[in-house]
Amino acid sequence: MDNYSCFVIGLGAFNVAIKGLGIHSCSFEAIYVNGNNALILGNYLGTDPGGMTGFGNGGGGNIKIDGSASGAQIGDGT
User: Fold this and answer.
1) DSSP secondary structure code for residue 2 in this structure
2) How does residue 3 score in pLDDT terms, banded at 50, 70 and 90?
3) Per DSSP, which regions of 1-78 are E strands?
4) Residue 19: predicted pLDDT
5) What percent of the chain has pLDDT over 90?
6) For residues 47 and 50, what is the distance between their CA atoms, to the nearest angstrom?
7) CA-CA distance, 62 to 50, in Å (whole number)?
8) Mean pLDDT score, 8-21
9) 57: exposed, middle or buried (C-beta count within 10 Å: 0-12, 13-18, 19+)?
């Protein structure tokens, strides 16, 4: 597990959703996924909710999906 991410969907977590949040200024990635069937939808990553000011996230980027996670969905598929 990554202890420097803002949100962690950990091993053993199933069917977790992260929706509609402004997530920025994290030490590494904004969201780290290691659980199954995670849904990440409608978030503002690395910016303010208006999308006008960039705050960024650390060296890990915005979203990291661990190789053992399965069924993760980013966005609504459209």
Assistant:
1) -
2) low
3) 7-9, 17-19, 22-23, 31-33, 39-41, 44-45, 63-65, 73-74
4) 94
5) 38
6) 8
7) 17
8) 90
9) buried
Q: Which two tokens stand for residue 41?
A: 């939808």
CB-CB contact of 36 with 14 (8 Å): yes
The answer, yes or no, to whether residue 1 has pLDDT greater than 50, is no
* Structure tokens, 65: 């999906």
pLDDT at 65 over 50: yes
With CA atoms as reference, report the closest residue to 10 among 44, 40, 38.
38
CB 1 within 8 A of CB 28: no
One-letter amino acid of 60: G
76 has a pLDDT exceeding 70: yes
